Structures are given as structure tokens and as C-alpha cells.
Amino acid sequence: MLEKAVSxxxxxxSIAYLYMAKGLSFGSxxxxxxxxxxxxxxxxxxxxxxxxxxxxMLKKDNKKANKKDDDTAPKMDIIKLVKFVAGCIVYVxxxxxxxxxxATFVVMVYLLKVTEVQGWVLPVIVSAGTSLGFYIVFEKMLxxxxx
Amino acid sequence: MSTVSSLLSGMAAVMTPTNxxxxxxxxxxxxxxxxxxxxxxxxxxxxxxxxxxGLSPATAMIMFCGVYYGAMYGGxxxxxLVNIPGEGASVVTCIEGYEMAKKGRAGxxxxxxxxxxxxxxxxxxxxxxxxxPMLAKAALAFGxxxxxxxxxxxxxxxxxxxxxxxxxxxxxVMIGLMVGTIGFDPMTGVSRFTMGIINLEDGIEFIIxxxxxxxxxxxxxxICKPEEQGEMMKFKFRDLYPNREELKRSLPAMFRGGILxxxxxxxxxxxxxxxxxxxxxxxxxxxxxxEEWGHGAIEGVAGxxxxxxxxxxxxxxxxxxxxxxxxxxxALLLAGFMIHGVAPGPMLxxxxxxxxxxxxxxxxxxxxxxxxxxxxxxxxxxxxxxxPINILLPIVMVITFTGAYAINNSLFDLGLLLLFGVLGFIxxxxxxDLAPLVIGMFLGSTIEKGxxxxxxxxxxxxxxxxxxxLAGTMLKIGLAVxxxxxxxxxxxxxxxxxxxxx
Amino acid sequence: MKKKAFxxxxxxxxxxxxxxxxxxxxxxxxxPQGQDKNEIKYPERPITMIIPNSPGGSTDLLGRTVAKGLExxxxxxxxxxxxxxxxxxxxxxxxxxxxxxxxxIGSVNTGMITSSVFKKSPTNYAQxxxxxxxxxxxxxxxxxxxxxxxxxxxxxxxxxxxxxxKIKIGHTSVGGSTHMATALFEKTTGIEIExxxxxxxxxxxxxxxxxxxxxxxxxxxDFKQFMESKQVTALAETGEERIDDPVYKxxxxxxxxxxxxxxxxxxxxxAPKNMPEEVKQKLVEAFEKTVNDPEVKQAIVDLGLxxxxxxxxxFKKMWLETQDKYKEVFTEIxxxx
Lengths: 147, 502, 337
Description:
- The structure holds 3 protein chains of 3 kinds.
- Chain A has helices at 2-22, 36-57, 63-72, 78-98, 100-114, 121-141.
- Chain A is mainly α.
- Chain A folds into 2 domains: 2-72; 78-141, no CATH class.
- Chain B has one domain.
- Chain B is 76% helix and 1% strand.
- By secondary structure, chain C is an alpha/beta fold.
- Chain C has 2 domains: 47-137 and 265-332, D-Maltodextrin-Binding Protein, domain 2 (3-Layer(aba) Sandwich); 141-248, D-Maltodextrin-Binding Protein, domain 2.
- Classes of the chains: A mainly alpha, B mainly alpha, C alpha/beta.
- Chains in contact: A-B, A-C, B-C.
- Chains A and B meet through helix 1, helix 2, helix 4, helix 5 and helix 6 of A and helix 3, helix 8, helix 10, helix 18 and helix 19 of B.
């Protein structure tokens, strides 16, 4: 299912890309313009993505085998995934406001709770260690200016 | 004869306490920056440049060379342990290396990578010592049309090595090329596909793209597999190092990788990265255990990792004998030389032979130092995987973010990193291969520049391009391989259909 | 299950709370310093220098050299921060939008003209920033391979006239200084050539030495060692006067040869606008001393540039003039639409 959706999305993306590439000047063979390579690549991508989409849609006879795979595959914990990604998004914004140390510490604690580490002592110690450790390595040893 | 004696006097120059310590520092910093995702040689040199002002040119050069070699050694570590390639040249290492780590053979993979790096790095340095001026002249025969041809040949080889479906690989390569065109056009300065976002104008940083798709994508995939979470890697200390069987299988791969890497590495631009997947393809074909490929075949780590270190040495050839860097880390190394008033190139060997040979000697010594430093580290790194995975994941996430930030000091990059992570996760679930996508993006600008410059140079005629001996040959080989693989896959599909009907 | 959701919620709340307090804390701590009355004690903490290019390039190295020299005259550390991207636009905007208190300065260069000239609604950085000092300049050099058939500029132009479109000249950076020099050369001499853009001088030199292109327009530093080893021959340079460097002292300027154009790449320093006058004065003085410091001068020469100081006023004038010239020439050759 996902494979089909992605294959479909790739067709749309390729067509959109080709459309945008058409807006750039193609130039000529002896003076290739900005759109020269994008047009070629976009056209090839459209062709390939359509062939791929068709072949994915035609794969019906394999469906039974696929279903078996789906059953044995571990179930995804989507909620956890969303929580984790949300934590990362918050992290990016927090870095700007609070600086590296606080943001890293707080988000680490949160992420560790998302990944179901028991208790509070361990997450806090790990987070403090990580944020401080990376701070020292990057900022002090490697001279990177962290936010 | 004179080469050997000059080399020996160079060795003596490096073995003075100051220079030797400089070499150790360089190698250590190089390893550290190589291991940390994102940083690489740029970060290391930014740190060292101001600190090196007070040093004598020879000492500074020895330190820079240590960094240059060290960063290449360290690059494989994150690929193997957490599936995060730090640069183009270690993307291939992820394929088998990470599979090995999943099976508890991370130590073996790391050790083989270190040993292979040493062997191939030394082979490369020998090549550099004895054949540099000759090889450098040959390298000049490569102009923009040839770069284009190499990159195309590389892509065609890539269709064949990775994944089960050449069609999907080809599609992923195209998408990768598309991503590569985002930003300023290298020829006219017109911004393309940026959708008005200023941060996209310089294009998407390759490392961000790779770390996002691979690293973050992998983290996300592990997060939502609850069953596997309880498991942690269990292995005994003795298992950290490769067993006799694994070593026996890797050694020939290392030597082959060394030779391939050195030869392909002489080609400018993406030669180093291409050498890794050529080596992978060769090893896969020669392997006596074809069933292991994709599930942690040790030759798939040994070959490419050796190849990229030999290629790394090969890229010093044009730098030292022509003064022309053929890759971006070479360009930074050149900058390091320049601020110390040393201009590497045809004149260096005659005007300042002591310095020249000290630099060459430091490469040999650096290689030995790296092996000595890296082998014990294998144990340390591999033990990191003993950390329960639910604690390890957030730590890896934070280090990926920090490393990514360090590249451009840009928070926007972190947003991109996360976006690519989610995309990588989805693509992987949809059974699309990531390696062709990443390499496609990596080669995109080389292909475009080579194509556009090549078309101008050959007055707009593709036939003129094909009539150039080197470019033409490579393109024809590429075309032949492409046709062959298309025909083969059609043949296979028909056979499968027949079987299905019967 | 509910407990876990509660826990993660609490943590999220905590995150937000911390974010808010962190925010407040930040602005509290910076206010008193900015509001010091009359007496301005400057500088009393480290200064940040924004470099709009990646580490390792010539702008970065020049910036770091000058930053180090500045420390001596300002008595405070100067921390270099690379903000590459958008061909200097990101760094330039960051500098433009930072607090005009003298604690954020930045390196500025011809690249900012290029990036602003091409925009539909260009930012006039010469006006939006406070130019502080010019630090270095560099002409561009037109060179051919030594074993080619051309030994002088006239021979070269004669050939180009007889064979329109056959000569390919390599340069770096579209809309940059080498491109400008190539365009001016083509325009002034009336020859028809094809220009090929390379990323970085060394790639162009490699193509030149390999015979893939016939000539290249690059900075002196790109050619220097190849001049020494006699692999390339410089035909002319685009400066107002000849270059001091012994390697180049015999290379005539285009003007000397009767082609009336010049193109000079420059590198300077600037700050956000509306700084307190006293702070600006201190910065200007410090920069003047730094750029004229013999040690710094030597370091700039080692980078292959010509050290040159000029006052903020002269610098601004030069900046504006370059901007006009770029707009005019690049519009003429159809690069700006």
C-alpha cells in the first residue's frame, strides 16, 4: 500500500519538477542554459516513475506473498514515532531560544521518556551527560559555535 | 634509489619530537572529526588553522596531513555503528557494515575497515611516492567531458550493484539528481527550484541529505519497532575482533580495493566515492558467498573502505605534484598549506625537497599511527552498542543534530535533516533503496557541470564529446553496461512470467 | 498507558516553560549593556565576526587573519563565525539584522554585489550595512598555457578575431569578479569567445593545463606557482597598476596595452548600521591599525592578495561604484534580465 502511494507521489513530484524545469531557459546545445540538465533529468524521471508506478500496480499476483510479509512484520508504533519527531521539532526551535545546553538537556529527557526508559534518575543523568559532553567536545575542543 | 633515501631523511624529519607530536595530534583530531557525523575535515581544519600560525611550516603541514588521513579513517565508524555515512565515500560501507553490526559483528566490521584502511592507505602512499609526477600528468588529460563520463559510468554501475530492482534504483538516481539541482545553477547563478526560500539557494548540503535519509531515517525506524527494543547487543569481548575466517575473506578484498581505489582516485572530483562502489561491485561478483550480500558480507566493508583510503592517497597526487586539489578536502588542505606560505606543486620538490619528503614521510607514519590508535578504539566503539537501544537512540539523534548544525551553523539545516529523516523512513518502508538516491544527489553537480562545460568545449555537439578518446570510451562502456542490464532484466522478467504462467 | 501519556505531557510543558524563561532570561541580560548612558566602554566582551563564506576559502582566511590582528588593538577576543549560504546573502543578512552595538562585525566582499545584483528586489548592502574598512584587493589575470601559440595579448586577440567562438575562457563564479573581467575583456576588444564557469580556480587551472580550455581569467594566487614553474604565461592583468609580486611585475595591465577597463576584487569589513558614533570610531581606528600592521600585511600577501586600507567613506564610494558597474555590464551581456 505504502509502496503504491510513494510510487504515485514520485510520479507527481517528477511531473511537477519537469513543469518547473520547463520554466527555465533550456539554452542550446552549444550554450546550455539553466534548464538544460533539469529538463533532461525531469523527463527521464517522469518516464521512469510512470513505468515504476505501473509495474507496482500490476504486482497483484504477488499480493498474497506480500500479505504474509505484512503479518510477520512487526507492528509500527506510530504514536511513538510522532511523539519522537515532535520532540525533535521542538528541539530545533528551542535551540534558537535557550541555547544548546538547556535545549539538549530538556529534549533528551523527553526523548528518553518517549523511548520508555524507566524512572527519572537515569534519563536525567544521561541527558546531562550527553548535553555537557557534546558541548565540551564541539564547542571547547572543536571550536564550533553552538547556539 | 634516491627516492628511498630522500624518503628516509623525510622519516627522520618527522620523527623529531615536535613533528611527531604534531602528527599524533593531527591524526587524533582527524579521527575524532571523522567519527563525529557532519564535521569532517572542514571542521578540523577550521579548528587547526588559527592554532597553527605559530608552528613551523613543516610541523603544521604534518599536522594537516594527519587530519586529512585521520578523517578518512574515522568516516566508516558511524556508517557501521548507526548507519550514518559521514561522506559520500562511506555510503557503500553502510550497506554491509550496518548489517554486520545488527548481527553483532560491528567489531569485526570496524576492525576490518581499520586494517583495510591501513593496507590500502599505505599502498596508495607508495604509489604517491614513486609515481606522482607521472600520474599527475595523466590526470590532466581529464577535462570536464571526462568528469561527466566518469560520473555517468559510475551511476550505471550503481544501478547494477544496489538493490533488487534496477528500475527503482534508476528512478531513485533521477530523484537524487533532481534534489541536486536545487539552488543556484553553477553556470549562470540563476536560482532554481528554491520556491523562494533563501536558505535553499546554495543548494542542499550533501551531508545533511545523507545523514537525514540514512541516520535519522534509521533512528525513526528503530523507534517504532517495539519488539526489538528490549533486545540489546550481546557479545563477548573476544567477539569484538574479526575471526580467522573473516580475515581470510577480507584480505584479498583489501588489496583489490587498494589498487582500484588508487587508480580511480586519480580521477578528479567524485573519484573517491565512485571507487567505493566499483570495489563493492567487484567484490560482490567475485564473492564465494553471494547469499550473504545485503546481509552483512564482510568483503563489502573491507573492499570499499580500503578503496576510499587508497583513493584518498591518490587525491594527494595532483595536490602535491601539480598544486591542484581534486576534491574539496584537498582544497582545504591546500588552503592550510597556503597560509603557511607553502605552495605545493611542481616547484615544491625542487625548491623545498626537505619539506616535500617530510610531508610524504608523515603520510606513512600517519597511517601506522592511525592503525595503532584505531584498533583499540574498535573495542570502545563496538561496546557503545551495548547501551540499551532506547537510550542510545536519543543520544545518536542529538549527536546527529549537533554535527549537522556544526556544518553551516544553520538551524534551517536541522529542519531539513528532520524532513529528510521522515522521507528516508517512508521510502525505506516503501522498499525504495536509499543508496542510489544519495549517490545521485552527490554526483548531480559533477554531471551537470561536466555536461554543460563539456558541451561548450565541444561546440555543442554530443558526437564531438563521444569522439574524445577517454570520455568516449567511458560513455560507450557505460552504454554497453546499461543496455546489457536492461536486456537482462527484461529477460528475467519474461522468464519469471513464464514460470508464473506454468 | 495513561500514566505514560501524562508523563510525556508534563515533560512537554516543562520544555515550553523552560523555553519561555530562557527567552526572558536572554533579553534581560543584554538590556543593561546596551543602555549604558553616555560613557560607552567598548569593547568589554568578545566580538563576533561573521564570515559569509565557508571555512578555508580566501575570504575566510583573510577574515581570520584580520580577526587575529584586531584582538591586539581592541583588547578583546574576536570570534569568527562562518555563516555561508545564498552566495554570501545569508551571512550579509545576519550581519544586517544583528544589533548595532559593535559586538557583531562581518567581512564583506564583491560577492555581496553579485548576490544582490541578481535578485528581483536586490538588497543594496552598500547602503544597508556600515562599511568600516577596505582590507585587500586583487586584480584578475588572463593567462594561457606556456606552450600555446600565443605569447602576447595582441597575438591572442588576433587569433580570437580570426576564429570567432573558438576560444574558450575559463573563469570562476558567475556574476563574480573573474566573470566581470572576462565580460569586460570580451566587450572592450570586440572579440567573440565562449566563457566556461568552473567551481574554483584550481579546476580552471587544471582544465587549462590539460588543454581543455585555451585561456583562463583568474586571480593571481591561482596562477602563482604555475607562473613560477613556467607552465602558464600571463598575458595581462586587470588592475590599475602592475602587481608588486616579482612573479607578476612584468605582466602589463590591460590599460597599458590600450584596452581601457579594469576590474578589481576587493575584501573589506562592515557592521550593522546605526552604531553609536564612538563605537564606530573605535572600530575604524582598530581596523586601520590592523590592516596597516606589518605582520597582518605580510599574512595578506601570503594569501595572494594585495593589502590595501581605505577609510569608511572611500570604501563606501568604491562599493557603490562597483555595484553600478556590475549592474550595467551584466545587464548589457544579458545576465541580468
